[in-house]
């Protein structure tokens, strides 16, 4: 995430993420699942522009970037709002909820106008809504000169959503608990991916309800070591997502995307988060562009060649 402040506005760039590793350790009494996940930000961004509003309101103007809005796929019971759809009520938006929480925590009644331009699809396992919320917290903290310490922003972020603290911390990290306990990994070099997001999204809650905690959890450390070594083939062997069977039981797209990637010479392909996006780890940016070009005409939804990095 980067943030640019001028006297009249704050602009924030909110990246998507990929889960290179996700293990489900158990179901908790509070209904959440205990996880170990390794996430990297990728260069696919939403953009927020925050300006002061004199009327004390939180006003959210949310739109898709040109060319990003597509027809909506038919709903299923477990579908998320849909890759192209945004919540009709702005108060359901994670940005609004984050800003409201920030005002209450800081004890201020300032207003703000947020223009949000979205590229990251919703219900897609790329955490666009969580990244937007983190960007709103960081942006408003600056716009309103609140100077809240990082720890306080992090605890507020965790209340808005499990993935929000990851984006506030910035950079690749291993995340534990329900996802809110962050261990930053520092620089891991640039990795190249192809990301495919089908039109139909899935509800995160529905995928977690359908999952079974692993009886023999895989450790994340071998992936961390492989990423540090920079060897694509080593990293490829360690990619893992324990939510894939649950997502595949709810959406036919999961098997389709796995099969599509198998036809290509990629190092490995996995689902991100709770789906429905899949990604392939590629040998280079050029290789990723080549694979993305081959997949773009297959009617799979949106296809991007991207690199890791905030
Ligand atoms: O925290 P977030 O709002 O992203 O979570 C959405 C839903 O996903 C939760 O309500 C919960 O049902 C499920 N979830 C879970 N375990 C996690 C994270 C999310 O069960 N660690």
Please describe the structure with a list of short key phrases separated by commas or semicolons.
eight-stranded mixed β-sheet; 10 helices; 29% strand; four-stranded antiparallel β-sheet; binds cytidine-5'-monophosphate
Number of helices: 10
* Structural class by sheet pairing and helices: alpha+beta
Bound ligands, each once = cytidine-5'-monophosphate
Low-confidence stretches: 71-77
Average pLDDT number: 93
The number of distinct β-strands equals 12
Polypeptide structure, described:
This protein is an alpha+beta fold. 32% of the residues lie in helices and 29% in strands. The protein has ten helices and twelve strands. Strands 1, 2, 3, 4, 5, 6, 7 and 9 form an eight-stranded mixed beta sheet that branches. β2 and β3 form a beta hairpin. It is globular. About 2% of the residues have low confidence. Cytidine-5'-monophosphate binds next to β3 and α5.
SSE diagram, text form:
Layout: E1 2-5, E2 10-27, E3 33-53, E4 58-64, H1 94-106, E5 111-118, H2 128-143, H3 150-160, H4 164-169, E6 173-177, E7 181-184, E8 192-197, H5 204-210, H6 221-229, H7 232-238, E9 240-241, H8 244-250, H9 253-262, E10 268-271, E11 278-282, H10 285-296, E12 302-307
Parallel strand pairs: 2-9, 4-5
Antiparallel strand pairs: 1-2, 2-3, 3-5, 3-6, 6-7, 8-11, 8-12, 10-11
Helix pairs in contact: 1-2, 1-3, 5-8, 6-7
Cytidine-5'-monophosphate binds at residues 31-33, 35, 161-163, 178-179, 204-205, 208.
In short:
With 310 residues, this protein is an alpha+beta fold. It is 32% helix and 29% strand. It has helices at residues 94-106, 128-143, 150-160, 164-169, 204-210, 221-229, 232-238, 244-250, 253-262, 285-296; strands at residues 2-5, 10-27, 33-53, 58-64, 111-118, 173-177, 181-184, 192-197, 240-241, 268-271, 278-282, 302-307.
